Structure formats: structure tokens, C-alpha cells
Amino acid sequence: MAPAPRQYDETDVRIRPGRRSSRPRTKIRPEHTDAEPAMVVAVDRGRWTCIPDSARPGDLDALVVAMRARELGRTPIVVGDRVGLVGDQSGGSDALARIIRVDERTSVLRRTADDNDAYERIVVANAEQLVIVAALADPPPSVGFVDRALVAAYAGGLRPLLCLTKADLADTQPTADPAVVAAGWHELDLPIVVTRFDRPPDEMREVLAGRVSALIGHSGVGKSTLVNALVPDAARAVGRVSGVGKGRHTSSSAVAIPLPGGGWVVDTPGVRSFGLAHVSATEVVSAFADLAAAITDCPRGCGHLGPPADPECALDALVASGGVSAGRLAALRRVLVALAAPSWS
């Protein structure tokens, strides 16, 4: 005879303990008034290498690896950002601090993959100047790229500086005369430094000293050669900065390298294109103190290019009244044309 089926009651029901703590959560976060101010010098796979303000200038042994605190969520943190650190800042191989604050940025170098990409990438934050590196020969200078880089500098609040490299190769090529190449930007008061492989970059070293400067340029223009001349042990410095913890420097990331005389140079990867989908013509013009007030009289949607595209642009009236030279406006408008040019030009 088969056994009778088992009868179940409440004692057979297993109650799984709750995973949540019964302790009420609070939205009050600590103020971290003792957080150590620092600058981010490298970023790699969810880890940020930082140099505390309390460290001696250029002391790479004081580098700290940090993670982003939970309360920051997905707040983007890039090279050059000023942050607040708490936690283990000993710099040991197993030490890991936390970034609990990202300070307001004074400038941003931004780009998109191309002009149709709505996703904006912040390459460097808080740089004082943008060094646009272009070769005078091998390869020949890309005027379009320089113009687009100028647009990014003006819109992001960085002081642009043009560095023309390989002047030693240009000696035998009259078309690569630095004065001829730079003539188009003369009216924009763009500082220009010329370097040669066979001479130390003393002038460039002087303009970089004590500042945070970002370098950008096409591959092959001599940017790495310039960095190596400015920082004799640049290879070791890059490895030390971005090799802390489990990170490593790759061609797809920027890294800040300390200069022997003080200051930092942020070496960015060589770029094939420089998208400007995030920039408007008004942002660019607003960077010029002698032009910014005039464009308030422009009609809505004015691209500030003048006739026939913008027949009512107020900048033309400013030239007619003698408020600005025609050459300066022409130079600016040539840069503005870069906004409509392909991003790989």
C-alpha cells in the first residue's frame, strides 16, 4: 500500500533572510574637509593616477592611484582635472585612494570623433595653453588641422600656440618657409615657435615653464621628438606616471609629464581627425575681446562668415567703422570655415 502524501504546513516554509540591512540609509555624505588636493596625470581602465599638491614638483615617487568614489557616479575625470583625495595615499603597490571631488574646470580641450558624432570627449582639463604641433616638411603642414585646433582652443578657453617643427628639413624647401606658412594666422596674434632637430628647443622650453600645456598634432609631425627633447627622460617619466598600479600608457590616452623646470606637458595621442560637433561659431568669436561685443547685434543663427552666407553679420560693420582691421576679420573667418570643413582635413 502506497504511503499517504505528505501534508505541509507553515513550518515547512523557509524564510530567506533579507539582503538589505535594517539600518536606515542616510543621504548625508561626509564633507571630506581634509581631502588632499591633487591633479590627475593619467587615466587607465577605472584608475586615475594623481599627484598631490603637497608633493615636490616633479616628484614621481609621490604619485597616488585612486578610484572614483561611489557618490560621484559617472562623473567624467580626465587628465588635468583638479580633484580631492581621501584614503590610502602612501603610493604603495597595493594602495588605493578615492577621488571624492572634482573641482570646476578652468578650460577644456574637447573633440568628437567626427563632425557628425554627438558624443563629446574631453581630452584634457585645466590646461593653460594648447600647443598645436605641425611640421614644416615631411609631412607638409596641414592648415586645415591647425585651424580646427584653433577653434577647439578658442572655444575651450585655452591659449593657442603654434609649434612648427622640422625647420632643418625646410631649409631646402622654400615653400616650407616658417614666415610663409604662419602668415595666415599673423592677424590673430597667434604665438609661433619654430624648432629644429639639430638644436635644443630652448624657446619652447621657456614658454612651457611653470604652465600646464597640452600638445596635439598629427602622427609624424615630430611631437614625440619634441617631448623627448623637452624631457630627456620622458620615456621613463611616462612609464612611471601611467605604469603606477595596474595601468599602462597606450596610444589612445593622454598623459601629463613633469617638465624639469616646473610645469607639465600633456602628451596626447596623434589624431587623424578633430571633430568639432560641439562647437559653435559664436563660441569661437567670443574668445576675441575686440570682436565679442559686436556679435550681439548679429541675427540669430549667424555663422559670422559674412556675405553671401551671413549678409547681416555685425562684424562687417565693425570693420567699416574702423573697430577692427579687415585682415584680422579675414583671418578669423578662415578659421571659422574649419567648422564646416571635414574633420580629417
What does this structure look like?
The chain has 345 residues and is an alpha/beta fold. The protein folds into 3 domains: 67 residues, Beta Barrel (OB fold (Dihydrolipoamide Acetyltransferase, E2P)); 160 residues, Rossmann fold; 59 residues. It has 10 helices and 13 strands. The strands form 3 sheets. Strands 10-9-8-11-13-12 form a 6-stranded mixed sheet. A 5-stranded mixed β-barrel has the order 1-2-3-5-4. A two-stranded antiparallel sheet has the order 6-7. A hairpin with a 5-residue loop joins β12 and β13. The termini are far apart. About 2% of the residues have low confidence.
What distinguishing features does this structure have?
globular, Rossmann fold, 5-stranded mixed barrel, alpha/beta, OB fold (Dihydrolipoamide Acetyltransferase, E2P)
Brief overview:
With 345 residues, the protein is an alpha/beta fold.
Per-chain topology:
Elements (H helix, E strand, L loop, with lengths): L35 E9 L2 E6 L11 E5 L13 E6 L9 E6 L5 E4 L9 E5 L3 E7 L7 H14 L2 E7 L1 H4 L7 H5 L9 E3 L7 H7 L3 E5 L6 H8 L3 H9 L12 E4 L5 E4 L13 H5 L3 H4 L21 H7 L5 H11 L9
